[in-house]
Design goal:
Blueprint lengths: L8 E4 L3 H12 L4 E4 L3 H9 L4 E2 L12 E4 L3 H14 L4 E4 L5 H12 L5 H5 L3 E4 L20 E5 L6 H13 L3 E4 L2 H24 L6 H4 L4 H7 L6 H10 L1 H28 L6 H16 L14 E8 L4 H11 L6 E6 L5 E8 L1 H13 L3 E3 L2
The structure holds nicotinamide-adenine-dinucleotide and prephenic acid.
C-alpha cells in the first residue's frame, strides 16, 4: 500500500513505539532514519528493518521532513526542542503518554528564549493509544497502531500544515486520528490507561509473597487483570508523575470505593455474611463494574459487539491449534477473537473462539462432527 507520508522520517527513540512506527513506514516504502542514545537499541531496530541509522545516512541524502520523538516522557520536551532547532524544515511530533507537562515545558523554553514561537509552531504533540507491556524494539510490530485511536494534540500556536502531517502519519500507520486539548487528553488517559496500570500493578504486587499453592490456582481472571503489571517501571514512573494530578484524583475515587467495600466486608467478616448492608455493598461494586465495562468500546474502536463464544478443548501438542483454526475455516466461520487458558496440571488447553452469534450453532455442530470436544458454557 502506498503511504501519503513523505520522508525521510527521523525516529528518535527506537524502542517499542519508535521501532513499530519505523517498521510500518519502512514497509510502506518511506525512508526512515533512526536515532537512540542506546547503541544496542538503535542497532536492534535497524536489524529488525525499522530504518537506517542516522550515522549511516550519506551527507547528501535529503534531510528529515518529519521527526517522531518516541522517548520516555521525562526527556521528551528536551528531545523535541532539539529536533525543532536541528531540523528547521521538519514537523516534529512526539508519542509520549502524557501531553500537558511536555507542552508546558516547551512553552517555558519559549518564555526563557531557548526556543522561538516559529519553532514551536512546527510541533504537534500526539499519543497513539497502542502499546504493550514490553519495551524495546524486540517487541515492535508494524501493525501495533492498526485500528487504534491516535490522539492529535495541537497547541494554540500549532501550524495547520504541521497538524495535517501528523494526522497523515497516524492514518498511514493504520490508526484512527482524533483531536483533543492537552489537559483533556491527560484527564482521559488517567481514567482509561494510567489508573488501570496502577491497579493491575497493585493487584500483582499482592502475589509476591503468595504461597505457591495459591498461585497454582491462578485462572484467566488473574491473567486478565495482571497482563500490564509486567510493564516497564521506569517508563510508567515517568508517566504517572507526569500526569500526577488527574491520576491522584482518579485513585482517590477508587480508594473511596475500596474503603466502602472494606467496611461492608468487615461487617460480614465479624457478624456473618447476612449482616445488614454487606450483600448490597458487594453487589453494588460488581453491578457498577458491569455498567462500566459495558461502555468500553470493542473491536475496531466501535461499540462493543456481542459475539458468541465457543470453547473447545485443544490438546497441548504441536499443530493442534492450527488444525482447529483450519477446521473453523473449512466451516466458513470467521474468528473475531481468540483467548486461551491452560490447565496447569493437564496437557490440554481451553480455546475460546469469539464468533458472530449467527455462526455459533453451526460452528459448535461442525466441530462436534469432526471430533473436537466443545465445552458447553
Ligand atoms: N509502551 C507503550 O505501551 C506506549 C504506548 C503509547 C505511547 N508510549 C510512549 O512512547 C514513548 C516510548 O515508549 P516505548 O514503550 O517505546 O519505550 P522503550 O523503552 O521501548 O523505548 C524508548 C527508547 O528511547 C530511548 N531513549 C531514551 N532517552 C533518549 C534520548 N534522550 N534520546 C534518544 N533516545 C532516547 C531508549 O534508549 C529506548 O530505546 C514514551 O513516551 C511512552 O510514554 C508508550
Ligand atoms: O495494551 C497495553 O499493553 C498498553 O499498555 C497500552 C496503553 C494503554 O493503556 O492502552 C498503555 C500506555 C500508552 O500510553 C498507550 C497504550
Amino acid at each position: 500500500m502506498s503511504l501519503s507520508t513523505t520522508g525521510p522520517v527521523l525516529v528518535v527513540g527506537s524502542g517499542l513505539l519508535g521501532a513499530s512506527a519505523g517498521l510500518a513506514l519502512s514497509i510502506g516504502g518511506v525512508p526512515v532514519q533512526l536515532q537512540d542514545t542506546s547503541p544496542s537499541a538503535r542497532a536492534l531496530a535497524r536489524d529488525l528493518g525499522a530504518g537506517t541509522l542516522v550515522d549511516d545516512v550519506a551527507p547528501d541524502d535529503p534531510t528529515p521532513t518529519l521527526v517522531v520523538v518516541a522517548v520516555p516522557p521525562d526527556v521528551t520536551s528536551d528531545v523535541v526542542a532539539r529536533a525543532l532547532r536541528q531540523h528547521p524544515d521538519a514537523v516534529v511530533t512526539d508519542v509520549a503518554s502524557v501531553k500537558a507537562v511536555i507542552l508546558a515545558e516547551l512553552q517555558e523554553m519559549v518564555a526563557a528564549g531557548g526556543l522561538s514561537d516559529a519553532e514551536l509552531a512546527r510541533y504537534v504533540g500526539s499519543h497513539p493509544m497502542a502499546g504493550r507491556e514490553r519495551s524495546g524494539a524486540a517487541a515492535a510490530d508494524a501493525d501495533l497502531f492498526h485500528s487504534r485511536p491516535w490522539v492529535l494534540v495541537p497547541h494554540a500556536g500549532s501550524d495547520a500544515g504541521a497538524l495535517a502531517r501528523v494526522r497523515t502519519l497516524a492514518i498511514d500507520l493504520g490508526s484512527v486520528p482524533l483531536q483533543m486539548g492537552a489537559q483533556e487528553h491527560d484527564d482521559a488517559v488517567a481514567l482509561v490507561s494510567h489508573v488501570p496500570q496502577v491497579l493491575s500493578s497493585l493487584v500483582a504486587a499482592r502475589l509476591v509473597e503468595a504461597p505457591d499453592g495459591a498461585l497454582a490456582l491462578a485462572g484467566q481472571g488473574l491473567r486478565d487483570v495482571t497482563r500490564i503489571a509486567a510493564s516497564d517501571p521506569r517508563l510508567w514512573a515517568a508517566i504517572l508523575v507526569g500526569n500526577a494530578a488527574p491520576v491522584r484524583d482518579q485513585l482517590a475515587l477508587v480508594r473511596d470505593d475500596l474503603t466502602a467495600l472494606v467496611a461492608a466486608l468487615d461487617g460480614a467478616a465479624q457478624q456473618g455474611p447476612l449482616t445488614p448492608g454487606a450483600m448490597a455493598a458487594a453487589s453494588d461494586a460488581v453491578r457498577r463494574g458491569n455498567a462500566g465495562v459495558a461502555r468500553v468500546p470493542g473491536k475496531h474502536g466501535g461499540a462493543r459487539r456481542a459475539y458468541a463464544e465457543v470453547t473447545v478443548l485443544v490438546p497441548d501438542s504441536t499443530g493442534e491449534l492450527g488444525r482447529l483454526f483450519a477446521t473453523v475455516g473449512e466451516l466458513g466461520v470467521n474468528i473475531e477473537d481468540v483467548t486461551m487458558e491452560h490447565a496447569t496440571q493437564h496437557r490440554v488447553g481451553m480455546t475460546t473462539l469469539a464468533v458472530v452469534p449467527d455462526a455459533a450453532e453451526r460452528l459448535t455442530q461442525g466441530l462436534d462432527e469432526r471430533g473436537w470436544r466443545v465445552v458447553q458454557a
